[in-house]
Specification:
Order of helices and strands: HHHHHH
CATH class of one domain: Mainly Alpha
Strand content: under 5%
Number of helices: 6
Shape: globular
Mean pLDDT: 78
CATH topology of one domain: Four Helix Bundle (Hemerythrin (Met), subunit A)
Number of strands: 0
Length: 185
């Protein structure tokens, strides 16, 4: 009996540190593999939405990746400036005006970079595909947010209908049940 208890404790001691490492990895930054997976998924989604030809894809993806890297760096600088501003406010030290101005400058840089996207992408894609890209990027972003919230790609939680959308069984007018005042489907 004593051997069983000791064995169980040894297993528990081995599992606890590995669980901590696992949890830390999932709470912090995504792993390089996860980042690559997300990038590949995004590129596949955008390629499908934009209906890129092989020639367009060959010209577009290097420009897109380079621009995304610049945008990420600018956003990171904005977040670093915001962190410094928060720390300055919390500690009551530092030149708050300078920290605020650094944050506003970094934010303006992000905004200017985002505003230049149509011009940058327009150098390798026709205007209609650039517009479609902007709409598709928003669609992909919403799709990812919905996934994180446990929703499907339509914004619905699995097994739940959206009120007023007339889905069978959601208990709202137009759901096709007898007596709801509307014909069934």
């Amino acid at each position: 009996m004593k051997k069983i208890i000791v064995s169980a404790l040894m297993c528990a001691m081995l599992l606890v540190p590995s669980y901590g490492a696992f949890a830390q990895n999932h709470r912090g930054k995504p792993s390089p593999e996860k980042k690559e997976s997300m990038r590949a998924e995004r590129e596949a989604y955008l390629t499908e939405q934009l209906e890129l030809t092989q020639e367009e894809a060959d010209a577009f993806w290097p420009v897109f990746r380079d621009f995304q890297n610049k945008r990420h760096e600018a956003f990171r600088a904005q977040m670093d400036a915001l962190k410094a501003l928060k720390e300055g406010l919390d500690s009551g030290s530092g030149n708050i005006e300078a920290l605020l101005q650094a944050y506003l400058d970094a934010k303006s840089n992000v905004d200017a970079l985002s505003a230049s996207a149509p011009t940058v992408y327009g150098s390798v894609l026709p205007a209609a595909k650039v517009a479609k890209l902007i709409v598709s990027e928003e669609g992909f972003r919403h799709r990812q947010i919905n996934r994180l919230g446990g929703q499907d790609d339509n914004g619905d939680r699995p097994g739940k209908g959206r009120p007023g959308k007339g889905r069978p069984g959601d208990g709202h007018p137009g759901d096709g049940r007898p007596g709801d005042g509307r014909p069934g489907r």
